[in-house]
Structures are given as structure tokens and as C-alpha cells.
Design a protein that fits this description.
Blueprint (H helix, E strand, L loop, with lengths): L2 E7 L7 E7 L6 E11 L1 H7 L16 E8 L11 E4 L2 E3 L5 H4 L10 E2 L11 E5 L3 E4 L5 H4 L5 H11 L7 E5 L3 H12 L3 E5 L3 H8 L5 E3 L9 E6 L6 H7 L1 E9 L12 H5 L4 E4 L5 H14 L5 E5 L3 H10 L5 E5 L3
Helix pairs in contact: 4-5, 4-9
């Protein structure tokens, strides 16, 4: 039996509109989930604004979902109705290619993504395969947990790829949802952190933490960096970060979309064994590891909360940079 649900839908034309859609009954190992909260991610904005090539149009964006299972398909074994789950960006993979079989499923050519290839979390109900759902403890706070499911996981993967040495100096370019969750991870590991970001609100958020330096996005920290992560979708920051990074250091570009990178000088930017790396989504193992670490550290994002009727306003606030930290839709019942 289909489930009629209320949702916010985008056709990639810079707009999002409220409407209704039918969800089929769960099949296989699918779960029908009632949404409790959904984070608003910059990737959602890239989908809504057409900066990513459309995979499904129209589509319901949203891939940082915390919800409660209402029903399951006949093949679901691990989870049951009433359980809390998280739904993230990675929706499915082929499970059989060389990448999937070697712990690199985020690179699978047949990977599919929530809120991009299939309808996502800006809806009162959604479907997810049990194999790609994260089991969450009873009593989980949906609003503070939702941003962990993308902003947090991607920040964790980016930090791992940054090869930051023990006690090293990490630079974060952009200080939005991901960066403000990544900084505490690095600090907890004994690193020092500098934040280079535009906007008074983001800089104020950074100054709440015991950071080594806070400046605008093109500032050079007073001490060179051992590693840097670029969260801002600005290709112009790549040479800036490389120039501020020590020989032998690593710069990681963590966005799914970034503006064009200007020409690099081999001598100034890449010589002396500086590494330039990217992040392409995450694996389920990344998500499981990060969620355990976040629980251990009691990691909680700074959140601006919106009601279900305010989704368009939340998207616009993210686009304009009016809100800092993480933006989350809390679903009223």
C-alpha cells in the first residue's frame, strides 16, 4: 500500500516547492521511515541550484535524515518498526566491483545517492535500504544528530585523508557545518587548528573554539600548516591553501562541487612533495566509525532549527550565508 507524504521538491531551477507524493510500500530490505529531522547540506543546494548535473528531476533533496521506522520489507533482518535510524548520502552500490570489494565503495561507478538519484529527507516519509541505514540508539536527539550524517562523516573522512601528523597544525578553509564538526575531532587528537573563512557569523563561530588563528578566507595563518582541508566550494582557495602548507603537507578538497581551480605554480604550490587530494563521498564504514567517535566525544553541532514549513527559507539562508553552523529541519507532528 502506498504512503501519501508531504515533501519539498526541486527541479534544479534554484527553487523548491511544497507538494505531495506517493511512496510505494517497502520491498526487499527497504525501510519506510517517518522523518524526525533532516539537515540542510550544501550538496542539497548544489542539487537545487543545478550546479550538479541532474540525476532525477524533480527530486526531493535531503540526505542527513534521522527518523523512526514505520514498516519494513520482507528481507529486512537487522532493524524493526520503532527503531531510530539515520539516512545518509550513500544510498546503494553494486557490491561486486573492485572498489566495493576493497573497502572503497564510495568510488563505485554504480553508486546511488539520497536526495539526488532518489527522493530524500525533505519529506515526512522516505525509503532506505536496511543495508545503508545507520542504527541509532533509543533516545537519540534527532536535531543534533542529523548534521553528523553528512557534514560530520565527510569532515571525518577529509581529516583522515589529510595525513595530519601527531600534534600538527590543521587549516580549515570555510567554517560551516562540516568544519565546525571537524575542528573538535582534530583538537581532541591533540592538533592545533586555524580557520580561514568568510562572513562574520562563521568567524564568530570559529572563535568560540580554542583555535590557533581565525581570519578571512584568504588570510595566511601566522604559522605554516601541516595539512589543510578546503570545505568552501571555491577553487580559488586551492592555491591559497597549498601556499600556506609546509613541504610534505597535504591539502584536501572536501566538496562534491567546487568552482574552477586557477592555474597552479609547480614551484610555489606543489613542489617539495605537497599532496593535493579530494574526497568523494564516504563509505558506510566511515559513517559507523565516525558515529561511534562522535558519541564518545559527545560531539554536538551548533544548530539553527527550522520547521517543516520553513524549508525554502532554510535553503535560502544557506545560500546567502546568513546562518552559521548546521541548519536542520525539525519535523512537527
Amino acid at each position: 500500500m502506498n504512503t501519501r507524504t508531504e515533501a519539498w521538491v526541486s527541479a534544479g531551477n534554484h527553487t523548491i516547492a511544497r507538494g505531495r507524493l506517493d511512496l510505494p510500500a517497502p520491498v526487499g530490505d527497504e525501510l519506510l521511515v517517518e522523518t524526525l529531522a533532516c539537515g540542510v547540506c550544501r550538496t542539497d543546494l548544489h542539487v537545487i541550484d543545478g550546479e550538479l548535473p541532474p540525476h532525477r528531476s524533480p527530486v526531493v533533496p535531503g540526505h542527513q535524515v534521522v527518523g523512526r521506522i514505520l514498516s519494513t520489507g520482507p528481507d529486512a533482518r537487522r532493524l524493526r518498526p520503532g527503531d531510530l535510524v539515520g539516512i545518509a548520502w550513500l544510498r546503494s552500490t553494486c557490491g561486486a566491483c573492485g572498489y566495493c570489494l576493497t573497502g572503497r565503495e564510495n568510488l563505485c561507478a554504480d553508486a546511488r545517492f539520497t536526495g539526488y538519484d532518489a527522493d530524500g529527507g525533505y519529506a515526512r516519509h522516505s525509503l532506505v535500504r536496511e543495508a545503508f541505514a545507520y542504527a541509532l540508539p533509543a533516545g537519540t536527539d534527532p536535531v543534533s544528530t542529523a548534521p553528523l550524517l553528512c557534514a560530520g562523516i565527510i569532515g571525518y573522512r577529509a581529516l583522515r585523508r589529510a595525513n595530519l601528523p601527531p600534534g600538527g597544525h590543521l587549516g580549515l578553509y570555510g567554517f560551516g557545518s562540516s568544519a565546525h564538526l571537524t575542528a573538535p575531532l582534530a583538537l581532541a587528537a591533540g592538533a592545533s587548528v586555524s580557520a580561514m573563512t568568510r562572513g562574520a557569523a562563521n568567524q564568530a563561530l570559529a572563535r568560540r573554539m580554542p583555535l590557533r588563528f581565525v581570519g578571512d578566507e584568504t588570510s595566511r595563518p601566522p604559522d605554516d600548516l601541516d595539512a589543510a582541508i578546503i570545505f568552501a566550494p571555491a577553487g580559488a582557495l586551492v592555491p591559497v591553501a597549498l601556499a600556506a602548507t609546509k613541504p610534505g603537507g597535504t591539502v584536501v578538497v572536501a566538496g562534491i562541487h567546487i568552482s574552477d581551480i586557477p592555474a597552479l605554480s609547480y614551484e610555489e604550490h606543489l613542489f617539495h612533495e605537497r599532496d593535493l587530494r579530494s574526497v568523494t563521498g564516504n563509505t558506510r564504514a566511515d559513517g559507523q566509525e565516525f558515529l561511534r567517535l562522535a558519541a564518545h566525544l559527545r560531539l554536538r553541532p551548533t544548530v539553527t532549527t527550522y520547521g517543516f514549513g520553513q524549508v525554502a527559507a532554510a535553503v535560502d539562508d544557506l545560500r546567502s550565508g546568513r546562518a552559521s553552523g548546521s541548519l536542520v529541519i525539525a519535523f512537527d507532528r
